[in-house]
Amino acid sequence: xxxxxxxxxxxxxxxxxxxxxxxxxxxxxxxxxxxxxxxxxxxxxxxxxxxxxxxxxxxxxxxxxxxxxxxxxxxxxxxxxxxxxxxxxxxxxxxxxxxxxxxxxxxxxxxxxxxxxxxxxxxxxxxxxxxxxx
Length: 134
Ligand code: HEC
Fold this sequence. Notes:
Elements: H1 2-50, H2 54-66, H3 84-89, H4 91-98, H5 117-128
Helix pairs in contact: 2-5
Bound molecules: heme C.
């Protein structure tokens, strides 16, 4: 009986030990996988938070600075810039013109002060982010 118990102990203790090690390794791996996936999710969320889009970031800037001249509904007779389609169509020309010196030919907004750097950067970033509508 005593032999039997010692055999059982001899066999089972190492077995349990390896099992525990495996469980520890497994738990660590699972923990790491979870942490990584969590990092990814929060990174995606952060990217999404800064991605510029027309509805939230661009529309107001254009309305505030390019009306009434480019807003037909307000009597503007210049190239319309009152929709997502029109602004995306002209984005390269818009970016070029708003970065000119006010004294240069073609500068926009025509007969107004130059837009602030941060406003210009919003439009640049919007293009970098892929000209999203919303
Ligand atoms: C006071 C009126 C006025 C305002 C405000 C104004 N523009 Fe203009 N815009 C004009 C005039 C006039 C022209 C035509 C002359 C020219 O092409 O330089 C023009 C032309 C343009 C063109 C070229 C259109 C084409 O037919 O290819 C673009 C692009 C443009 N403006 C962008 C803007 C943007 C962007 C803003 C706002 C940041 C703005 N404009 C504000 C009067 C204005």
